[in-house]
Amino acid sequence: MILQTTIKPMTITGVKVAYYFICHTKLWLFSHNIQMERESEDVLMGKLIHESRYRRMKKDVVIDNVMSIDFVKKGDIIEVHDIKKSRKMEEAHRWQLIYYLYYLYQKGVKAIGVLNYPLLNKKEIVKPTDDDFKNIEQIMKDIFTIVSGKMSPPIKRRLCRRCSYVEFCFGGVETP
Amino acid sequence: MKTNYYLTKDGVLRRKENTVYFINKEEKRALPISKIYAIYAYGNLSFTSGVASYLSQKGVPIHFFNNYGFYEGSLYPRETLISGDVTIHQAEHHLDADKRLYLARRFIEGATQNILKNLKYYCSSNSSIEKYIGRIEKELPKIEGYTDIPQLMSVEGHIRDTYYSALDEIFPEEFRIGERVKRPPNNKTNTLISFGNSLMYSTVLTEIYNTQLNPTISYLHEPFVRRFSLSLDVAEIFKPIIVDRVIFKLVNKKMLDDSHFVGELGDMLLSDTGRKLFLQNYHDRLSTTIKHKGLGREVSYQRLIRLELYKLVKHVLGAQEYKPLVMWW
Ligand code: SF4
Questions:
Q1: Worst-scoring range by mean pLDDT, A67-81, B110-124, B209-223, B224-238?
Q2: What is the crossing angle of helices A14-22 and A130-148, to 10°?
Q3: What is chain A's mean pLDDT, rounded?
Q4: Beta bridge partners of B20
Q5: Contact status, residue A22 vs residue A143, Cβ threshold 8 Å
Q6: 20 to 30 A from B202, CA-CA: which of A140, B221, B241, B293?
Q7: Does the pTM of the predicted model rise above 0.80?
Q8: Which atom of ligand 1 is nearest to the CA of A157?
Q9: Is A1 on the interface with B (CB under 8 A)?
């Protein structure tokens, strides 16, 4: 069976870039609008962090429906800020931000990124290199291929335990 | 944790801030919105459109039943988990005759295997049951042979008849089913079966709401049999696991007496206390947990329904072939 895809090139969102690094099954499911929870604890937690900190910044900047940046700071150089809870998915967070910076770069805006971990009182500056931008182009191509193909079979790893899809992925293997 | 609320009396639903109240002459019961998973209404329930839209907005379905405990309809909340891909492929599996047959067979197969489990579990000490088990086992291969839905349905009917005849061998006389009579149920056990099956149907419907599946696209049952006919399909698998086991318990442990029924032979329904007893035991059964190998933790029977629906989603998406749940415990 060939699965038709409804994904259009412009609909690569930052979340998809992050999921590409986290799990291809998750990327596929999310891209096909298969979501599990109406409002998960994690989302609520994110909102709380958001509301309690960074009150003075301009928040939730949405650009072309592709990226939703937590806030932007304008100084000598534009800073794109992303707020995260923990550093578990650091690699994914970094590439998500690089993707945003790449996107802005295409629009003629040069910026650097900052990953904020308020719960840990940590910050990380992200200054993308040319190689990073080349990589992100390849990643975008990969995302198209994954999403327009069949659902990538789930592979059980540690991170599945905290994933909202775990019952979807592994809830059907009980019958001998 | 969210929970099911069963309203067995007549009353009114009112909203005050984040709480819905069930009010009648005797009581005022608070149903905090964050705690309601689904509402099952057995009495006459009145409510304002404000309450209805609030519950709908919060994703809470209300299921309505008549005096017999027959399902009458649902207030099905606005769907929020929609996936075009799932809907299209769900329909594709209905329209393609072979694909539809595959799923229709799996539902009957699952129901039959679970029926056999029940018979083997409850009747291991009774040798007269063996012949019924043998008969049902002989029907199983026919499921693969038949290629149209009405034939499949008739195999299923046959299996159920055999199952009920087997139960009659072990049930005390006052609980013999004889013939399965639905509307109106004519004796005690038929009353219990009808009541339980309606409940099962609504429980499955609640779970469907929490997935991307469209409840109107079904495989074994025709989509026009009932509005939400996918519920009927999936309920087949769970009736033996949940409803029938509740009935066995109530009958075997002699928990039922005449006060639990009203009406007479030929036209019987559960009394108020009968309904409460059934609902309590049904709810306990839904909340019972068992160890799930794939997930490595305990899951409730109610959750097993959801997992079954996820398996269907994966099947229609072409990710993993659907095999029905057969009790492994
Ligand atoms: S449960 Fe595991 S395999 Fe499934 S989507 Fe989540 S991370 Fe991926």
A1: A67-81
A2: 80
A3: 80
A4: B15, B31
A5: no
A6: B293
A7: yes
A8: 2
A9: yes
**Which residue lies with its CA nearest to atom 3 of ligand 1?**
A154
Q: What is the pLDDT of residue A44?
A: 54
CA quadruple B32, A40, B40, B54: dihedral sign? positive
Among candidates B230, B5, B239, B233, which has minimal Cα distance to B115?
A: B239
Residues B155 and B146: beta-carbon distance below 8 Å? yes
In this structure, the number of other CB atoms found within 10 A of the CB of residue A37 comes to: 11
Per-residue pLDDT band for A24 (boundaries 50, 70, 90) equals very high
Distance CA A151, CA A2 (A): 11
Q: Do B325 and A176 touch (CB under 8 A)?
A: no
Q: Which two tokens stand for residue B151?
A: 């034939």
Count other C-beta atoms under 10 Å from residue B305's C-beta: 24
Q: Show the tokens assigned to B89.
A: 């492929």
Do residues A3 and B318 touch, judged by C-beta distance below 8 A? yes
Cα angle A39, B41, B20; round to 5: 50
Whole-angstrom distance, CA of residue A127 vs CA of residue A124: 10
| CA distance to partner chain A, nearest, from residue B294 (Å) | 5
Residue B193 pLDDT greater than 90, yes or no:
yes
Which residues are within 8 A (CB) of A160 and not within 5 positions of it... i.e. 6 or more apart?
A23, A154, A166, A169, A170
Residue A81 β-bridge partners: A71, A114
Q: What is the pLDDT of residue A1?
A: 37
Pocket test for ligand 1, best of A29, A147, A163 (most atoms within 8 A of CB): A163
Number of C-alpha atoms within 13 angstroms, CB side, residue A85?
10
pLDDT digits (tens, 9 = 90+) for B146-186: 888 999 999 999 999 999 999 888 888 888 887 777 777 77
Write out pLDDT tens, residues B44-74.
999 988 899 999 989 999 999 987 788 999 9
